[in-house]
């Protein structure tokens, strides 16, 4: 089982911009400039955690639980973050980072997924601040 909190500002992945054609193929680039550094941070933290805990790469079906903690704007009064970023795009960045870090062979192994986004209760880099809690376990 993997359980890890990665502090930082979660960034969405998924929207692509068309930049032209090369050798008859479209060139698509990620629209978000923040997703690259966010994925690098996630992948690095997952690798370090896996090495410390002596995690083996998961082979079979897995359950993933993600809790995104977002920064609440100073004037925001609502209880839940019902504005962008979209939950599915935040999730995509984490799942791809898990694949890159060797948590599993491929994110197609994710057969059960529970995802939430909420406002962080703290402003520090601790577990109550912005970031994502990642829990992965074999699906039994």
Structure description:
- This protein has 140 residues and is of the alpha+beta class.
- The protein has a single domain, classed as Holliday junction resolvase RusA (60s Ribosomal Protein L30, Chain: A), CATH 3.30.1330.70.
- 24% of the residues lie in helices and 33% in strands.
- The protein is built from two helices and six strands.
- The strands form two sheets. A four-stranded mixed β-sheet has the order 1-6-4-5, with helices on one face. Strands 2-3 form a two-stranded antiparallel ribbon.
- The model has no long low-confidence stretch (mean pLDDT 91).
Enumerate the spans where pLDDT stays under 50 for 5 or more consecutive residues: none
Report the sheet with the most strands, covering strand number, pairing sense and barrel closure.
Answer: 4 strands, mixed
Strand percentage? 25-35%
Termini separation (Å)? 12 Å
SSE order, as H and E? EEEHEHEE
Q: Going by CATH, what is the homologous superfamily?
A: Holliday junction resolvase RusA
Order the strands across the largest sheet as they lie in space: 1-6-4-5
Radius of gyration: 16 Å
Q: What is the CATH C-level name?
A: Alpha Beta
Shape: globular
The average pLDDT value, as a whole number, equals 91
Structural class: alpha+beta
What is the CATH topology? Answer: 60s Ribosomal Protein L30, Chain: A
Number of helical stretches of at least 4 residues: 2
**What's the CATH architecture name?**
2-Layer Sandwich
* Total of domains: 1
Helicity range: 10-25%
Q: What is the tally of beta strands?
A: 6
